[in-house]
Amino acid sequence: MEHTIRVTAEVELENEQEVLELIEKSAKKVLEQVDFDAFIDVTIVDDENIRQLNAEYRNKDAVTDVLSFPMYEFENGKPLEELEKDPQTNKVMLGDMILNYGRALEQAKEYGHSPARECAFLTVHSVLHLLGYDHERDEADRILMRQNEEKVLRSLGLVRD
């Protein structure tokens, strides 16, 4: 499968090229489980931008770490509707991911691991949401999502410090 991850940074990043490549690599690793060519748009933003999006689309006027905006309905990796390829890219547009880089850096410190691991974790978490995994649905789905996250992060060599 050939997947495209378009990453745009609206904020200044430390080691920008490394961060962009890590996000792309992390998203593509999750997408190894799908049997179609996929496309995801990723935007890296600051606290204020993600707060506005969170308020507008989720009615939560608060800063968060990552938001996922799926184009299709999935449940635990299985599409619940027919997927259509975009005629220009010949890929299925899965949706948008918005990552708060400042929050990722804060959480890396808070959890005692590297900023790279936190950015990868948030990317994996978001792409799994785009594929219909949901840690808030019930306990079995929470466990399934966490197992998927850890499996992908291990395969990237990004285990908990």
List the helices and strands and how they pair.
Blueprint: E1 4-9, H1 16-30, E2 38-45, H2 47-58, E3 66-70, E4 74-75, E5 78-79, E6 92-100, H3 101-111, H4 115-130, H5 139-155
Parallel strand pairs: 1-2, 2-6
Antiparallel strand pairs: 3-6, 4-5
Descriptive notes:
- The chain is of the alpha/beta class.
- It has a single domain, classed as 3-Layer(aba) Sandwich (Collagenase (Catalytic Domain)), CATH 3.40.390.
- The protein is built from five helices and six strands, in the order βαβαββββααα.
- It has helices at 16-30, 47-58, 101-111, 115-130, 139-155; strands at 4-9, 38-45, 66-70, 74-75, 78-79, 92-100.
- The strands form two sheets. The chain has a four-stranded mixed sheet. The protein has a two-stranded antiparallel ribbon with strand order 4-5.
- Strand 1, helix 1 (16-30) and strand 2 (38-45) form a beta-alpha-beta unit.
- Helix 4 (115-130) packs across helix 5 (139-155).
- The N and C termini lie far apart (32 Å).
- The model has no long low-confidence stretch (mean pLDDT 94).
Rg on CA atoms, Å = 15 Å
Largest sheet: 4 strands, mixed
Query: What is the assembly state of the chains in this entry?
Result: single chain
Structural class call reads alpha/beta
Q: Please count the helical segments.
A: 5
Mean pLDDT score = 94
Note the gap between the termini.
32 Å
